[in-house]
User: Which sequence fits this backbone?
């Protein structure tokens, strides 16, 4: 429903934007604080996790050659499985985020955006 | 019909179709939003394909397949960094940026800062990253086309010598990219990316199935055959043949080689979310949710594609063999086309080989064309929107003027890229792709992340971060072994050759790593933070606005 929301070719006039006071009030409101917390609670730890996981992979590739070359099945070794696991974790995190955003973040943002944009229309 | 003729025919069909799309798109392009952002009417899936099209350059299609074919596992290492990087874009950048900007990366930064210094800095780094990337692609295109069409030194093609054919290719590629961008704008360029991405995925999937079929759909059998044929045995399937080499008896060299691997890994994973031609794609969709969807599609397509390059690379190692690949091109860029020829020959004899080779070669051409068009668009958008409209005209340019300037910029940047590429045809410029990623990670990413998440961040910090990261990356590379002083020992008694931009005998390098990321990325962040504290400027109200707008999408364009 929001897909076609933004107007394609009518740039919004800066002067018509809600005043900064309105944004400051919104930023300090309980509902926005909750949204920010919900957003950051997912993306910050997850960023640390996937960067650490990737760095571990790079460090092992550089310094733990013996471990990485251990054969697991046939000609498939730990290095290959570790690499494929990076693919799997990337897909998994992306899918997890999309679910989290759809179920937790999107319902919170809809209301706030409408409030702000209504205020903008009635008292620019 | 020979493979060469068929390649040319297929390539001409691609050019004809994309030119028709471009002309059609130009009729739909009226406003600045149309030109810069394709009218923001693309769906998440379409933009996901286009993101893939922009990202999967010839360097990743032919380059990674070639790296795997020659160095085995280490080529795979590259593609992992390229893929994981998209999580930075998905979690921290895409949606917030879509919500708070309009056309360029600088829109997000300048929202809460003084426009002119920040936009100038952003335009400088956008154009630097794009030109470096562009040069690598265009010089590569010249060499590649000569190889794919089988024009060897000493032979002629349509009356052109090999060197003339390279220059003709660069001019042709340059002219086409200028037409795509000036005529079709973002709308035309996006459709070109979509067509190319679809061709690339289908071509790679076809080859993957054929390769796996040769090994009874047993990957382990393929790996075994690749390792055996490589002559390196099990080491071919392990990290260390290309990056982070152990140099016996030289602890310092080993240390640097391992640090270089880590440095490359960092630049790959942090660079993507700072590449201007990727960032401006988030503006082509109507909402942040569509931007999220497009990154999810991009991750799916790019991930699937890199998994397929694994089969292409190891397949080429097993079926073509490194000797035959190196005989064609010592960087391995022709491994995938050579594999196509072998696979096709298996299916339908000589004709089959020629047909599949022609298909893959034309996919490679399409790839090069689409990527250079995306880069030209990113740099001309920044030049017109950031520098001309907001720095020179101080925001008083009309939309019409802006679009005219953007078209002119595309022409100028394209012309500069053509001339520079012609001068660089004899140089080894493959390192420029890694440098572009390093600059994007060192100069652009700190500024983007801090402006979205750090309340105290200000103009001085943004400007210091961008120039600091940019200069650090460029200076370190200039004094690194990729520019001077790297000696490649000759094989089997052959004389040593230079592995650097400059020839043997020139050596002014003092920075030991080939990739600057390990130093320049932290340096960029540090400059941004120190710069911020050096200035008293602080605007909590503006930050409140950025925060609310970026998270809720209120007032988004």
Assistant:
């Amino acid at each position: 429903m929001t897909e076609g929301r933004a107007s394609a070719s009518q740039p919004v006039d800066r002067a018509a934007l809600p005043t900064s006071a309105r944004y400051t009030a919104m930023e300090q409101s309980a509902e926005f604080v909750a949204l920010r917390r919900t957003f950051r609670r997912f993306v910050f730890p997850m960023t640390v996790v996937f960067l650490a996981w990737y760095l571990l992979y790079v460090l092992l590739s550089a310094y733990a050659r013996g471990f990485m070359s251990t054969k697991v099945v046939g000609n498939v070794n730990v290095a290959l499985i570790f690499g494929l696991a990076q693919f799997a974790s990337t897909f998994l995190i992306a899918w997890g985020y999309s679910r989290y955003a759809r179920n937790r973040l999107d319902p919170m943002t809809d209301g706030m955006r409408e409030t702000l944009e209504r205020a903008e229309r009635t008292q620019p | 019909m020979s493979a060469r003729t068929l390649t040319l025919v297929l390539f001409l069909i691609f050019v004809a179709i994309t030119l028709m799309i471009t002309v059609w798109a130009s009729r739909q392009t009226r406003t600045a939003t149309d030109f810069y952002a394709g009218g923001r009417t693309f769906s998440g899936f379409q933009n996901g394909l286009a993101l893939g099209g922009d990202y999967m350059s010839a360097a990743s299609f032919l380059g990674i397949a070639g790296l795997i074919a020659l160095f085995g596992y280490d080529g795979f290492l590259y593609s992992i960094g390229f893929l994981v990087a998209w999580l930075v874009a998905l979690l921290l950048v895409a949606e917030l940026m879509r919500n708070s900007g309009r056309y360029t990366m600088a829109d997000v930064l300048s929202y809460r800062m003084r426009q002119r210094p920040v936009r100038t800095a952003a335009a400088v780094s956008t154009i630097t990253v794009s030109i470096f990337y562009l040069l690598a692609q265009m010089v590569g295109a010249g060499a590649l086309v000569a190889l794919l069409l089988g024009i060897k030194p000493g032979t002629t093609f349509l009356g052109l010598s090999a060197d003339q054919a390279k220059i003709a290719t660069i001019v042709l590629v340059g002219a086409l990219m200028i037409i795509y961008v000036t005529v079709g704008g973002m709308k035309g360029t996006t459709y070109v990316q979509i067509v190319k991405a679809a061709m690339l995925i289908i071509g790679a999937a076809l080859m993957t199935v054929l390769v796996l079929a040769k090994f009874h759909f047993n990957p382990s059998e393929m790996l075994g055959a690749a390792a055996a044929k490589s002559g390196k045995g099990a080491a071919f399937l392990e990290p260390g043949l290309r990056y982070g080499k152990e140099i016996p008896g030289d602890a310092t060299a080993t240390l640097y080689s391992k640090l270089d691997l880590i440095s490359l890994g960092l630049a790959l994973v942090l660079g993507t979310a700072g590449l201007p031609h990727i960032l401006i794609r988030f503006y082509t969709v109507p909402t942040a949710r569509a931007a999220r969807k497009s990154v999810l599609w991009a991750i799916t397509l790019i991930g699937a594609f890199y998994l397929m390059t694994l089969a292409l690379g190891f397949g080429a190692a097993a079926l073509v063999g490194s000797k035959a690949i190196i005989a064609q091109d010592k960087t391995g860029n022709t491994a995938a086309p050579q594999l196509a020829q072998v696979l096709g020959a298996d299916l339908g004899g000589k004709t089959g080989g020629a047909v599949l080779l022609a298909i893959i070669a034309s996919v490679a051409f399409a790839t090069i064309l689409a990527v250079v068009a995306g880069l030209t668009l990113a740099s001309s958008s920044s030049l017109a929107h950031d520098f001309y409209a907001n720095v020179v005209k101080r925001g008083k340019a009309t939309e019409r003027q802006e679009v005219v300037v953007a078209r002119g910029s595309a022409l100028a940047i394209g012309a500069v890229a053509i001339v520079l590429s012609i001068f660089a045809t004899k140089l080894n410029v493959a390192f420029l792709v890694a440098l572009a990623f390093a600059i994007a990670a060192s100069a652009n990413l700190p500024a983007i992340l801090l402006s979205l998440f750090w309340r105290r961040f200000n103009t001085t910090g943004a400007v210091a971060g961008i120039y600091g990261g940019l200069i650090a990356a460029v200076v370190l590379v200039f004094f690194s072994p990729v520019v001077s002083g790297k000696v490649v020992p000759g094989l089997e008694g052959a004389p040593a050759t230079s592995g650097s931009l400059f020839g043997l005998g020139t050596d002014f390098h003092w920075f030991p790593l080939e990739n600057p990321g390990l130093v320049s990325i932290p340096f960029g962040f540090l400059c941004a933070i120190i710069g911020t504290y050096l200035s008293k400027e602080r605007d909590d109200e503006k930050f409140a606005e950025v925060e609310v707008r970026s998270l809720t999408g209120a007032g988004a364009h």
Remarks:
- The first helix of chain A runs from residue 20 to 28.
- Helices of chain A lie at 20-28, 30-63, 65-68, 78-122.
